[in-house]
Amino acid sequence: MRPAARVIIAPAKMFLFSVTYLTVEIMKKSTTVEKIKAPELITSDWLNTPQPVTLASLRGKVVLMHAFQMLCPGCVQQGIPQTQRIFDEFDPDRVAVIGLHTVFEHHEVMGRDALEVFAYEYRLRFPIGIDKPNEQHSIPHTMMTYHMQGTPTTILVDKTGHLRLHKFGHVSDLLLGVSIGTLLAEEVSDEELAAGSTDSAGNESDTQPGCDADGCRV
User: Fold this and answer.
1) What confidence score (pLDDT) does residue 160 get?
2) In 25-51, which positions are buried (b, 16+ CB within 10 angstroms) versus exposed (e)?
């Protein structure tokens, strides 16, 4: 019995070590940012929700924000289906999933009416905010505030309202799942939930604009 028990326990310990090591390594390789308060969303309208969503109203939950455009191949093929799966699988009382339609090109064909048809055709059920257009720039307000490089952009905000992941392009299911699980496992006090930083996010890039299979750069 003892040798058999050791055979069972040893792999269990090895599995636990492997998961812990994998979590650490994935978080190292992901585009994590210094813990700063996530800027509030600047939107002109919302779909799939009776009232506008604010990050402040989601305090205490892990927030996944997926920034996309309808004409972005990487968004349609990878990012949006992944976001819908997360919305379907995770407890909404613990993980809030929101979309942000942030248009920086082809503005005339990606308005609210087209987005409503798009959301209906793709059966999107998560709340979708429309990034407020910028009269002085082609890049809308929230996209500019977060210094997004393009679409799709995946953003994770922790329970205390701090930015923890900011990544342009496709994020693998494994990386995103581990990242969400890590933030869910973090214990926070009432004081931490009420507290916050006044810093702002940054993520600059000097790469050329254009679309490919992974996404569309500004």
Assistant:
1) 96
2) ebbeebeebeebbbbebbbeebbbeee
Q: What pLDDT is attached to residue 191?
A: 79
pLDDT(85) > 60: yes
Q: How far apart are alpha carbons 128 and 90 in whole angstroms?
A: 17
Total tally of structural domains belonging to the chain:
2
Q: How far apart are CA 181 and CA 61, in angstroms?
A: 12
* 118 and 202 assigned to the same domain: yes
Collapse the DSSP code of 118 into the 3-class scheme (helix H, G, I; strand E, B; otherwise coil) and give the result.
helix
Per-residue model confidence as pLDDT tens digits over 110-133: 899 999 999 999 999 999 999 999
92 and 14 share one domain: no
Same domain, 169 and 66: yes
Pairing of strands 162-168, 32-37: antiparallel
